[in-house]
Amino acid sequence: MVPDQKKPSYCFDTSSLVQAWTRSYPFDVFPTFWDKMEELVEQGRIVVPDEVERETSRRDDGLQKWIKDKDGLVWKIDEELQESVKEILSDFQFMVKNRPGKNAADPWVVALARITKRIVVTEEIEDDASKNPKIPMVCKHYGIEFKRLLDVIRIEGWKF
């Protein structure tokens, strides 16, 4: 689905989904938060790359099932996305290298946001560590806007 161009669209990192699901807005306490997230998915305004779904598969808390049940949420890997990831990893080879088994989705999140012109949503903190570059640093390099989950809630005007 093509998102409404007048409203912001987002590419979520695993960190923001896990933060929401387990700490900030657990489904059993904030079901309306997840209803609002689902509305954004239905509008085509939220996507995650395949790798985010894979990262959540290591969890047994229902988040991956929520992701899998949302048609249009998971962006399947295609040639354009692969090419963008290759470029990002050639510029930031240590983005995943120094963290084996962790943050494998990071370059995919940035690449997907880059090719679809979406805002990256991540809970990672800005840093300037070239030996361990995180999403905000890479987004800045490519001129990609990034926000935290709370920023999205404010942008969308959600009240609970």
The biggest sheet amounts to: 5 strands, parallel
- Name the CATH superfamily classification: 5'-nuclease
**What is CATH's topology name?**
Rossmann fold
Provide the low-confidence segments as ranges.
none
- SSE order, one letter for each helix or strand: EHHEHHEHHHEHEH
Give the count of structural domains. Answer: 1
Number of helices: 9
Ends: how far apart?
27 Å
Helix content: 40-55%
Using only CA atoms, what is the Rg? Answer: 15 Å
Mean pLDDT, nearest integer?
90
Structural class by secondary-structure content = alpha/beta
Question: In one word, what is the shape?
Answer: globular
- How do the strands line up in the largest sheet? 3-2-1-4-5
Number of strands: 5
Second rung of CATH, namely the architecture: 3-Layer(aba) Sandwich
Give the amount of beta strand, in percent. 5-15%
| CATH C-level label | Alpha Beta
Question: What is the topology?
Answer:
Layout: E1 10-12, H1 14-24, H2 31-42, E2 46-49, H3 50-56, H4 63-68, E3 74-75, H5 79-91, H6 94-97, H7 106-116, E4 119-121, H8 135-142, E5 146-147, H9 149-156
Parallel strand pairs: 1-2, 1-4, 2-3, 4-5
Helix pairs in contact: 5-7, 7-8
Report on this structure.
The chain is an alpha/beta fold and 160 residues long. It has a single domain, classed as 5'-nuclease (Rossmann fold, 3-Layer(aba) Sandwich), CATH 3.40.50. It contains nine helices and five strands; from the N terminus they run βααβααβαααβαβα. Strands 3-2-1-4-5 form a five-stranded parallel β-sheet. Helix 8 links the parallel strand 4 and strand 5. The protein starts with 9 loop residues before the first strand and ends with a helix. The mean pLDDT is 90.
